[in-house]
Task: structure prediction
Amino acid sequence: MRKMILWVLTILVFSLAGHTQDIDDALKPVTQTYAFKNATIIPAPGEKMETATIVIKNGLIHAMGSDITIPAGARVIEADSMFVYAGFIDGLSNTGVPRPEREQQTGGRRGSRPDGVNPGNPPRQLAGVTPELHVRGQLKHDDKSVSDLRKLGFTAAHVVPRGRMLPGKGSVIILAGDSGEDMLVAEGISQFIQFSPASGVFPGTLIGVISKFHELYRQTEQLNAHMKAYQANPQGMPRPDRNDALEAMIPVVEGELPLFFEAPDVKSIYRVMRMQKELGFQLVITGAEEAWYVTDELKDSNTPIVLSLELPKKPKEKKGKDKEEEEEEEDKEMEMLQERASERMTAYESQAAVLAKAGITFGFSTMEASPKDIRTNLSRMIEHGLTTDQALAALTTTPAKMLGVDRTMGSLKKGKMGNLVVTDKAYFDEGSNVRFVMIDGHLFEYEAKKKATKKKADSDAEADSSVKIAGTWDYNMEGMGQSVEGTLEFSNTDGELSGTLSNSQMPGDAELVNMVLEGNTLTFDAPIDFGGQSITLEFEVVVEGDELEGSVTISQFGQLEIEAYRKGDPD
Result:
C-alpha cells in the first residue's frame, strides 16, 4: 500500500505530464483491516486504556483491549507512545459545500434585485427561504474545507446549505469518500436558520427576518392543521395547498426536528430565546460567541448550544523600550479602555469553562473559524479553565448525542464506526501532532511537523519589516521516501505577494495562491492540475534570512518537509 501511495505521489505531483490515472483506483487499499498496537486509547472523555490495541475491520471497530488477537492480513501500525481518540465531530459548518459566486448568492451586487421582482413579495429563493433544501448534490468530497478539518482530527460534521435566512436542512457527513454521496450519514436531522437578511427584497432587515419567520411558522401551523383534518375526513373540505417550504417546516412545528438557530452575540441570543418561548420550537443555539451573559437562562431552559471555535485575535504585545515609552504617554482613559478590552478577551476565552461549570450542554462549531486557528483557540480555552475532558466531550460525545448519531460515532466501542484520530502525544498537549486519521475504513497518514525556530526581534513590527521573501529560492522536499528539488519564485508588489513553483518534471509553473506572511511565518497553496483533476500543496514555512523551512501538506497523501535557500540577494 505504501509503495502504491509513493508511486501515485511521484507520478501525480512531480511527473504530471501525460499521466491521467484515476486517484481513487490507485489508492484502493489491499486490506480493510488495520490495527493500532500498544497505544493509549481514550474510548470516551475520562476513560483510558494503556498499552492497548484497537482493530478496525471494514470500517468498524472489531476489537479493542490489551490482550486481543490481531486478524491475519491486518496492517499493523506500531503506536507505542501514541494516543487514539474517537474522531472529532463538527457541531455545525458548511464543510464540503463550496461557496457560490457572489452573483449566484445575492442575485447581483448587494442591494440590487432582478427586474420585475416585487420587493415586498419576492420568490422564496431570492428571499433566502428554502427550508426544503438538503446538502445532497452540493457536497464536494475533494473540497479543501474537508481536508483542512480532517488533518485536525475531525472525522464527521453537521453540515448545512449555504444561504440566507432559511438555507435548508442539516445533514451529518463523514469527511472521507469518493463522492458527496459517499459522505452522507444522516439527512434532514435539523433545520438551520440565521439572522441573515435578503439583498434588496423582503426580508431585507433584521426585523424583517424576525417578522418573516413568525409568518412562516404560523402559516405552517395552519397548513399542518388543515392537512391533519383533511386526512381524518376529507369530505366537504378543500384539498390543502402544496407548499414545499411550509411542509419542510412541519417537523419543526411538531417539535420533531430541532431548529439550529445562529445567534453569535448576546442580543441575538435573547431574541432567539424569546421567539422560542413564544412559539415553542425545539431550539439549539449555534455559533454563540457571547453566551456567558445568559448562562442562567440557558441552564433554566435546558437549551443546548454550539459554541464558535472562532475567538477574537489577541492583540500583539509590544516589547522593550517602545512599550515603556508608549505607556508613559498613555492617559487614564486609554488605560481603562485597554483594561476593558482585556477583560472582554478573557470572557471570550473563559466562555466554554463557564458553561461547563454551569452544566450546560455544548459542542463546537467551525463555522467562520479559520482551520489554522482552531487548535490554538482550543488551547486558549483550556488555559482559561476548560478541562481537557470537557473539551474532548464537546468534540465527541456531546455533538454525537446532540445530532442523534451517538450509536455509531462519538466514542470508541466495538461495533461503532472506526472513526479515529491518532496523535504522537496527548491531543491537547503543546507540540502534539496528528499522525493518523481513520474514517469509515479510509486511512490518512500525516508526517509530524518539523519545528522551526522563529526569528527573535525586539518588536513584531521589526520582525515583519526584516523578513524579505522576494527572489528565487531553490527548494528540496522530502518525505514518504521521496526527495524532489525545484524552484520557488516570490514577488512582493506594494505588499501584494505572489509566486510560482516549478521543477524539471512539471509541464509548467504552478501559481501560488492564498499567500500570507505573519511575522516570519509564510503560508501559501500551490494548486496543480493534471488530466482534468487537481491536487493542492499547502505550505507553511518559517523564513530566516536566506533560508526557509517547514512543511508541505498534500491532503490526499500526507506531509513532506521542505527547506529552501535564496539564490542571490533579496529583490
Q: What stands out?
A: The two ends are 44 Å apart (CA to CA).
